[in-house]
Design a protein that fits this description.
The complex is a heterodimer of chains A (264) and B (65). Chain A has 264 residues and is an alpha/beta fold. Chain A has nine helices and ten strands. The radius of gyration of chain A is 21 Å and the shape is globular. Chain B has 65 residues and is mainly beta. Helices cover 12% and strands 38% of the residues of chain B. The N and C termini of chain B lie far apart (38 Å). The model of chain B has no long low-confidence stretch (mean pLDDT 95). The chains are: A alpha/beta (264), B mainly beta (65). Strand 4 of chain A pairs antiparallel with strand 5 of chain B, so a sheet runs across the interface.
Chain lengths: 264, 65
């Protein structure tokens, strides 16, 4: 079954986005990317000394995979920094895509949604395609959409915690209130069951990094995440049953054996 | 002239950004540059004049989440 979707001007067949950090080696990263089926990979920019050529080797390897690159603005703490970094990313990675990430608290790395709104408006006006990393705040997400942001990525839990979805109710509300926007959960995923849960809620995709890269077997975990994403998506499209408070026998009642002898 | 390069004090003997990058040994195709938090596109490097105590951020591609 074909289940492709458009993200800005790009058609994708995979609904997993993958980070490229924290893998035990570049080779394992490459194998994990292949196993996940991910077509979109996140990258960053960091200060570089002239003699540290190792990073460029890594970037060359990544380019050879021929995936869509989604640079991030990780480490920025205000809109000004994020806009500058986005412009630098556009020149370096040759893409208008930017994962806009502005940290508001150093302890739980919660997105600074106030600065995010300022930066999103400016970058959308400057021709960027913003992927906004935010909290599950409905009003903030609606404003991001009003600025022309087509991809909104609320956190499931703080980055790297692996806690899964801390507020499924709010995520479900986002899906219901903004059916026209592509929604991905970014951050907080630990298990394939978390990925399946995201997709069962009707989200368009999931962005992962730590849960794969820091598992004992990243390639195998990438495979598990790929299957979970597919399973959750198929379940959503299939229309799950509603929860009930009382039991409802699945085996037909008519013709039940020995019913006369059962105590009332 | 003393400037800041990626947070470190550096002495350079030219004020031209392109020449500074050449002196420091950077490969131009691998990097992007901001001066005092303002992005300087690559096409502007040869005409960009850096002032004493300006702060350059010289960035390259890195893995990220």
């Amino acid at each position: 079954m074909s289940d492709s979707w458009r993200v800005y001007d790009v058609e994708l067949h995979s609904r997993l986005f993958l980070g490229t950090a924290q893998y035990p080696s570049p080779t394992i990263m490459q194998e994990a990317i292949e196993a996940s089926g991910a077509q979109v990979l996140t990258t960053s920019l960091r200060r570089q000394s002239p003699d540290s050529g190792g990073g460029q080797k890594w970037w060359q390897q990544l380019r050879e995979l021929n995936r869509q690159i989604l640079p991030n603005t990780a480490g920025c703490s205000n809109a000004k920094e994020a806009v500058t970094l986005a412009n630098m990313a556009r020149e370096l990675f040759q893409t208008n895509w930017i994962k806009l990430e502005i940290t508001g608290d150093d302890y739980n790395l919660q997105p600074n949604t106030l600065e995010l709104l300022i930066a999103t408006e400016q970058l959308q006006n400057d021709g960027f395609n913003v992927f906004a990393y935010t909290t599950e705040d409905l009003v903030v997400c609606k404003r991001l959409r009003d600025f022309g942001c087509q991809v909104i990525m609320p956190w499931g839990a703080p980055i790297g915690t692996g806690k899964g979805l801390l507020n499924p109710y709010a995520l479900k509300t986002l899906r219901a209130r903004m059916p026209e926007v592509s929604l991905l959960v970014d951050a907080g995923i630990g298990l394939p069951s978390h990925v399946a849960q995201v997709m069962e809620l009707g989200f368009d995709g999931v962005l992962l990094n730590t849960s794969i890269a820091r598992s004992d077997n990243p390639v195998q975990m990438a495979t598990a995440m790929r299957h979970a994403c597919k399973a959750g998506r198929l379940a959503y499209l299939s229309g799950a049953i509603s929860e009930r408070e009382t039991a409802d026998a699945s085996t037909p009642i008519i013709g039940t054996p020995f019913w006369q002898s059962k105590k009332k | 002239m003393r400037i800041l390069v990626n947070g470190e004090q550096v002495d350079v003997d030219t004020s031209n950004l392109q020449e500074i990058l050449d002196q420091l040994g950077y490969q131009p195709e691998d990097i992007v540059v901001a001066r005092n938090l303002e992005f300087i596109p690559r096409v502007e490097w040869k005409d960009c004049i850096i002032d004493e105590q300006d702060s350059l951020d010289i960035l390259a591609a890195m893995f990220g989440g």
